[in-house]
């Protein structure tokens, strides 16, 4: 394009402007291709939205097709003494729980040590021994912590906290008259309780006064660790922690405070209601997406990107067939149609849910509800059938993915055509540049000849005038 700037110098014509107009006219031929590519890209985006909505519906159907959903249990507690959670191993029932006291961690503090935290506590170093109530099998009942020579009270604290097997947290406490080395067990219960803190002979530097903390009644401040004590239906139970598993099969108890509580373990009907509601919402969202993509506005004449698309019609038809088909046998006391569980298929293709009718079906026969949605044995239920259909519609080599592939192929073909046409335009413009350059040179020569002849005629006229 650099040569364009020189066009017109010889002729005085606006050849650059003319070349720009020709360029614009030629590139206008690319606009229909650009619009077609953009249309296919928008179409692919619309297919992607449809796939996303269909995938969400598949997930909702799969959740409702899972038999474990209908077998899940919930634990409700009356009272503030505890909280509880039930898993699949629990059995429905009611339990009276009495919490006598909670589990607590043991704590122990040395007598006052007459040095500031930053002053030297020991000259030659030594061993600090910590004893515990009753360690689990295979673990020691006491541990020894080495303290370096010249350590301060703060460094003794840090040595305890840095020891991997210490099982306590150490801190310094000022009771208003002096400092104490305080220990708190990491775990609750009697077995984990710290019960002794013994300093090796010669541990303290000269001048440091402290009584032997091994004699707890005379020298140390102690809070013994203890196990939680509670009863379930009159059976006494102890636990080293306040979170108890196994006291009631499949139930985890979280003891909160002393007192009474009633624990009810029952079928989790709320989870089933939420799954059915989610199923209806996901289907309606899918229908809404399809409606937006296939809509037609008669006033404006504007149509959705997938209006009249055969792949969309295939998705709608297959799901509608599954929704309207029978599942069980009403004569055998089974639910056969969605309407029997309070789910209606509206005229616009969406679903509506009657919560009261669904609650009644769940309360009367949860097993029948399970068989309707989840099926039995090798026979899928309504939700299982819809999940399978949705998975097939989302799979490879089906109408929806083929439609996306077709749009992508058209984009590739159009892009190749665009490149070829663009190359042709560049060749045409280059030919124009050459021709304009030749025209510019020719007119420049003609102008020079004209100027020369004019000068000659003028000279001749002047000569004749003198004669």
TrEMBL record:
Aminoacyl-tRNA synthetase keyword on record: no
Domain Flagellar hook-associated protein 2 N-terminal: 11-104
Subcellular location: Secreted; Bacterial flagellum
InterPro entries cross-referenced by the UniProt entry: Flagellin_hook_IN_motif, FliD, FliD_C, FliD_N
Keywords on record: Bacterial flagellum, Cell projection, Cilium, Coiled coil, Flagellum, Secreted
Chain ranges of the Flagellar hook-associated protein 2 C-terminal domain: 225-448
Residues in coiled coil: 397-431
Keyword Coiled coil belongs to the record: yes
Subunit structure: Homopentamer.
Role according to the record: Required for morphogenesis and for the elongation of the flagellar filament by facilitating polymerization of the flagellin monomers at the tip of growing filament. Forms a capping structure, which prevents flagellin subunits (transported through the central channel of the flagellum) from leaking out without polymerization at the distal end.
Assigned protein family: Belongs to the FliD family.
PANTHER family assigned: FLAGELLAR CAP/ASSEMBLY PROTEIN FLID (PTHR30288), FLAGELLAR HOOK-ASSOCIATED PROTEIN 2 (PTHR30288:SF0)
Official protein name in the record: Flagellar hook-associated protein 2
Biological source species: Halomonas mongoliensis
Classification of source organism: Bacteria, Pseudomonadati, Pseudomonadota, Gammaproteobacteria, Oceanospirillales
């Amino acid at each position: 394009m650099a040569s364009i700037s020189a066009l017109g110098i010889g002729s005085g014509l606006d050849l650059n402007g003319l070349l720009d107009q020709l360029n614009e006219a030629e590139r206008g031929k690319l606009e229909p291709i650009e619009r077609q590519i953009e249309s296919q890209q928008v179409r692919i985006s619309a297919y992607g939205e449809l796939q996303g909505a269909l995938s969400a519906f598949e997930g909702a159907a799969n959740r409702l097709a899972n038999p474990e959903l209908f077998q899940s249990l919930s634990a409700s507690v009356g009272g503030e003494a505890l909280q509880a959670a039930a898993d699949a191993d629990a059995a429905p029932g009611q339990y009276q729980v009495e919490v006598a006291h909670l589990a607590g961690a043991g704590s122990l503090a040395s007598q006052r040590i007459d040095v500031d935290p930053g002053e030297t506590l020991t000259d030659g170093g030594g061993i600090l021994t910590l004893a515990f109530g009753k360690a689990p099998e295979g673990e020691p009942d006491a541990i020894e912590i080495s303290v370096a020579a010249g350590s301060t009270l703060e460094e003794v604290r840090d040595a305890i906290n840095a020891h991997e097997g210490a099982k306590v947290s150490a801190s310094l406490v000022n009771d208003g008259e002096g400092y104490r080395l305080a220990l708190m067990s990491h775990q609750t219960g009697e077995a984990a309780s710290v019960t002794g803190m013994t300093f090796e002979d010669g541990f303290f530097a000269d001048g440091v006064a402290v009584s032997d903390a091994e004699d707890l009644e005379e020298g140390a401040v102690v809070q013994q660790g203890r196990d939680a004590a509670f009863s379930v239906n009159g059976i006494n139970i102890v636990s080293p922690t306040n979170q108890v598993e196994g006291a009631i099969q499949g139930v985890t108890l979280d003891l909160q405070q002393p007192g009474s509580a009633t624990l009810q373990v029952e079928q989790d009907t709320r989870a089933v209601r939420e799954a059915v509601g989610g199923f209806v919402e996901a289907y309606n969202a899918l229908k809404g997406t399809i409606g937006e993509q296939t809509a037609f506005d008669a006033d404006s004449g504007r149509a959705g990107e997938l209006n009249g698309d055969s792949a969309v019609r295939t998705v709608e038809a297959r799901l509608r067939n599954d929704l309207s088909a029978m599942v069980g046998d009403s004569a055998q006391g089974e639910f056969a149609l969605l309407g029997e569980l309070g789910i209606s298929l509206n005229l616009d293709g969406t679903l509506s849910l009657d919560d009261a009718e669904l609650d009644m079906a769940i309360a009367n026969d949860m097993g029948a509800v399970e068989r309707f949605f989840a099926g039995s044995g090798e026979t899928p239920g309504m939700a299982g059938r819809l999940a399978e259909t949705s998975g097939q519609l989302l799979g490879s080599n089906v109408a929806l993915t083929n439609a996306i592939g077709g749009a992508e192929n058209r984009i590739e073909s159009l892009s190749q055509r665009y490149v070829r046409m663009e190359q042709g335009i560049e060749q045409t413009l280059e030919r124009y540049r050459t021709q304009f350059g030749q025209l510019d040179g020719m007119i420049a020569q003609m102008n020079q000849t004209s100027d020369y002849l004019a000068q000659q005629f003028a000279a001749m006229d002047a000569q004749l005038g003198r004669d």
